[in-house]
Amino acid sequence: QVQLVESGGGWVQAGGSLRLSCAASAFPLTDVAIGWFRQAPGKGREPVSCIGVSDGTTVYAASVKGRFTVHRDNVKKMVWLQLNSLRAEDTAVYYCNSAPQASFPWGQGTQVTVSS
To answer: What's the half-sphere exposure (Cβ side, CA atoms, 13 Å) at 48?
Structure first.
């Protein structure tokens, strides 16, 4: 069974940066587009960003465009999300999954907390 593992979250002050990582067991991340999603307290899970399989095509939610950058390394089979200029409203648990359809079981996610 595919297991997704997100890491790299933490606590930062507004304006700070974090780098999140996504890895998977039992499935090569190289074969699918990967999306980052987040769920803030009391809210539903929302898409944040997506990166294509091989051409590096990226898509960002309007709320993070220009601040977040997604990239992948198909040799290392990893996907990262660089979070810059963080805001309090970015506080959430961040998840990765296949995109646009989240086809795999959700991982534990990684908590990002931004203090203003």
So the answer is: 27
For 10, half-sphere exposure in the C-beta direction (CA atoms, 13 angstrom radius) is 11
First to last CA, the chain: 39
**Number of Cβ atoms within 10 Å of the Cβ of 43:** 9
From the number of C-beta atoms within 10 Å of its C-beta (0-12, 13-18, 19+), residue 37 rates as: buried
Q: How far apart are CA 105 and CA 68, in angstroms?
A: 24
Per-residue pLDDT tens over the stretch 53-81 = 876 799 999 999 999 999 998 888 899 99
In this structure, what DSSP letter does residue 76 have? Answer: T
Q: What is the DSSP letter of 44?
A: -
Task: Give the helix/strand (H/E) hosting 10.
Answer: strand 10-13
CA distance 64 to 30: 24
8 Å CB contact between 36 and 51: no
